[in-house]
Amino acid sequence: MTSYEPMPGAAPVGRMLLAQTAFETKMLLRNGEQLLLTVVIPTVLLVLFSAVDVVDVTGPGKRVDFLAPGLLALAVMSTAFTGQAIATGFERRYGVLKRLGASPLPRWALLTAKTGCVLVTEVLQVALLSVIALGLGWSPQGSPLAVAALLVLGTAAFSGLGLLMAGTLRAEATLAAANLVFVLLLLAGGVVVPLAKFPAAVQPVLELLPISALSDGLRSVLQTGAGMPWADLGILGAWAALGLGLAARFFRWE
């Protein structure tokens, strides 16, 4: 005779982590507003500024060779910073984080799952934007290893800043601030307008922004075939350490 006995207890952390990552990814892909921010806007900007001579800001060569790296950087920022900050901020407001924090899933695993969701989404973004850019005549160069290092450090930097904002501000303030920062960095971070177009007095400050370091590093590798952009990686590493460190210290679950 077969007997069935309950097996109380939490599942292994690895299984819980994978399940939460899959759940977070499904929720993001079902959110129309998040898809608009993370997929539609970078795609539209790439097609518009590459195919239409709106304004000559890219210098010599094909516009798409200048724009594609910057819009890859924008895609990372939109997912790791803006989208994650807004989603996490409202989860905190509605008590979702508090309840998940009391579940068997460790809090560090919850934040890791959110980062995993960001990485999965970014892979889809990079693939989509790359296919579109190639169709528009993009000719990428350089080392895939350098590109991967930039994307990983850029993700860490923006994730830390997004979690810091979501864990310290009210949800409504996070919504407004995240969108404002997104627009400001889009305009002043070297994404579609070269930093050389800005006044010389502010260029050194703009070059220290994480979006500027990411877009400049990607552009130097993919457009000119440069080696490992250590200066840009250093800036991104500093922002990642600062953002993640402050988020770990000041993040509030309620």
Q: Indicate the radius of gyration in whole angstroms.
A: 20 Å
How many separate helices?
10
Query: Approximately how much helix is present in the residues?
Result: over 70%
Strand segment count: 0
Instruction: State the secondary-structure class.
Output: mainly alpha
Main sheet summary = none
Q: How much of the polypeptide forms β-strand, as a percent range? A: under 5%
Low-confidence stretches: none
Choose one word for the global shape: globular
> Could you give the distance between the termini?
50 Å
Give the helices and strands as they follow along the chain.
Answer: HHHHHHHHHH
Query: Averaging pLDDT over every residue, what do you get?
Result: 86
Describe the fold and architecture:
- This protein is mostly helical.
- It has ten helices and no strands.
- Helix 3 runs antiparallel to helix 7, helix 6 runs antiparallel to helix 9 and helix 6 runs parallel beside helix 10.
- The radius of gyration is 20 Å and the shape is globular.
- The model has no long low-confidence stretch (mean pLDDT 86).
